[in-house]
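About this split. The held-out portion is used to measure sequence recovery: a designer receives only the structure tokens and must propose an amino acid at every position. Recovery is the fraction of positions where the proposal matches the reference. Here is one held-out target exactly as it appears in the evaluation file.
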């Protein structure tokens, strides 16, 4: 069983959207995934998102996705929430992935807005509702219009929040005003999906983070959210400002590219990327080292 949760923090407060380690020949590295998952939970994560964008989900097969969830559950499922990314731009395929994740034992689902085909809000509502209807697992929506091309409007979020299993939203919309209204009106547990806005989103009602930089600074993220919840906004702000070079450096290019480079620099499982992603150049790697060092990350 996963750690206990509350309606306010159904997946905990600090989660990392985990990369998918591959072997040198590009195959799934399940042993590496288990070692990385254990490392991240040891560092202070309450949960891990598996098979998300940072997990290179567009280029892993359905079978690989199930194998990965199963392996991570074996490694850390008794002490962390293991949330499976199942969102696609095909509702039926997403339903199949949701049911497979439930059979495998996942503790929850992350469902991204359908991308590329740009459905209207009614289409989004029916898509998310159908997926939530298809399993008994709690659902975290994922609103990232920069990737999907379509935002989940506040009215749609409010409608979706009426579903008993839609309990949270990962917000990568980058709009604190819209987030404020959606948090107030929907009652969903709100998770920052944009590391630079982790602290600002807490200030308008978010409960935690789904982070990429959590691969390298989980203890600092946990200290920041704990300080904020305890009322020590000054300390939380100090941590936020210390981490600014990390937030910047990890997103100078695509996040999975920099994350795998950072993990390799630390001797942690990562491996190569699958096309169309590519490794960082030598110059980009040197800049990443500078950014991480400026944020206090030990390499």
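Reference sequence for scoring:
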């Amino acid at each position: 069983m996963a750690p206990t949760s509350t309606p306010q923090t159904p997946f905990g407060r600090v989660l990392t959207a985990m990369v998918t380690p591959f072997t040198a020949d590009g195959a799934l590295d399940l042993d590496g995934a288990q070692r990385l998952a254990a490392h991240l939970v040891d560092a202070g994560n309450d949960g891990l998102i598996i098979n998300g964008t940072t997990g290179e989900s567009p280029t892993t097969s359905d079978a690989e996705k199930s194998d990965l969830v199963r392996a991570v559950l074996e490694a850390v499922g008794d002490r962390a929430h293991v949330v499976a990314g199942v969102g696609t731009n095909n509702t039926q395929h997403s339903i199949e992935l949701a049911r497979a994740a439930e059979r495998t034992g996942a503790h929850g689902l992350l469902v991204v807005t359908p991308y590329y085909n740009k459905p209207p809000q009614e289409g989004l509502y029916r898509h998310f509702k159908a997926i939530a209807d298809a399993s008994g697992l709690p659902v975290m929506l994922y609103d990232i219009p920069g990737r999907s091309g379509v935002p989940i409007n506040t009215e749609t979020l409010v409608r979706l929040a009426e579903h008993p299993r839609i309990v949270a939203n990962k917000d990568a919309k980058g709009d604190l005003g819209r987030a404020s209204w959606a948090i107030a009106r929907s009652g969903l547990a709100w998770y920052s999906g944009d590391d630079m806005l982790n602290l600002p989103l807490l200030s308008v009602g978010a409960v935690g983070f789904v982070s990429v930089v959590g691969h390298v600074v989980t203890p600092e993220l946990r200290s920041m959210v704990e300080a904020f919840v305890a009322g020590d906004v000054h300390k939380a702000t100090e941590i936020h400002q210390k981490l600014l070079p990390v937030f910047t450096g990890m997103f100078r290019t695509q996040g999975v590219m920099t994350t795998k480079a950072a993990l390799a620099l630390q001797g942690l499982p990562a491996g190569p990327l699958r096309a169309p992603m590519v490794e960082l150049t030598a110059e980009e790697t040197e800049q990443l080292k500078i950014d991480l060092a400026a944020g206090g990350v030990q390499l």
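Annotator remark: The mean pLDDT is 97.
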